[in-house]
Amino acid sequence: MKKLTFYEQVGILIPGSVFLFGLLFYFPALREVLAKDGVSVGQLGIFVLLSYAAGHLVAAVGNGGESLLWRVAGGMPSDWITKPETKLLSPQQRELVDKKIQTRLGIPIETVRGLDRKVWWPISRQLYTDVARHGKPDRIDTFNGNYGLNRGLAGACIVLACIAAVKASWLPAGLLIAFSIVYSYRAYRFGVHYGRELYLQFLLLSDQQTKEPAHKKASPKA
């Protein structure tokens, strides 16, 4: 099995572990996964695999909450640069982004302001790829990982709150909903940091257009 990425560790594995831990309170039979006198290496491996699988489950729930969150917030932060006005970057920085998209990426657009988001989305992906290859994406990936972590924790809390409500545990259900709101707010904050850092790192790159090295042609076989 390949090494888990930072995003998979914090955005998938940790929320999945929290979800499984919460299930133990309502389904005691799951405690058989763990030994009474400790955890063996094999049992730990099983728990990690189950947490990873559960993490993808709560991530699906988090995706639904994510769509609602950014719909209320006016779109993903990486798309805010297309708005007429935004506090994500200063007006001067937005003009520099416009110029650098033309000079560095070679995309002939006058300005991203007012650009359709469906048109801007693939350009923003190319912009991130450029930063990932030629810049310093560590802070961007850290913000993205913490965004995934809080989104996953919010999703885990929502699912556990539903289970608690079915079990008529109203106080835990209310607390879990409150936790999900806090985690959603934290996801919002990290999402904004991600969007801003993406463009700041892009502005630090040179204006020279990136060119992929030409591949050598294979010699014809006799």
Describe what this molecule looks like in 3D.
- The protein is mostly helical and 222 residues long.
- The chain has helices at 6-26, 41-72, 91-103, 117-134, 138-166, 170-203.
- The protein has one domain.
- It is elongated and about 60 Å long.
- The protein has six helices and no strands.
- Helix content is 66%, strand content 0%.
- α5 packs antiparallel against α6.
- The model is unreliable at 213-222 (pLDDT under 50).
Helix content: 55-70%
Mean pLDDT: 86
- Taken together, the total number of domains comes to 1
Kindly name the structural category: mainly alpha
**Main β sheet profile:** none
Q: Give the oligomeric state.
A: single chain
| N→C terminal distance | 41 Å
Number of strand segments: 0
How much of the sequence lies in strands comes to: under 5%
Unreliable runs: 213-222
Q: What pattern of helices and strands is seen along the backbone? A: HHHHHH
* Count of individual helical segments: 6
The gross shape turns out to be elongated
Query: Radius of gyration, rounded?
Result: 22 Å
SSE layout:
Blueprint: H1 6-26, H2 41-72, H3 91-103, H4 117-134, H5 138-166, H6 170-203
Properties at a glance:
disordered C terminus; 222 residues; elongated; mainly alpha
Q: Can you describe this structure in just a few lines?
A:
Helices cover 66% and strands 0% of the residues. It has 222 residues and is mostly helical.
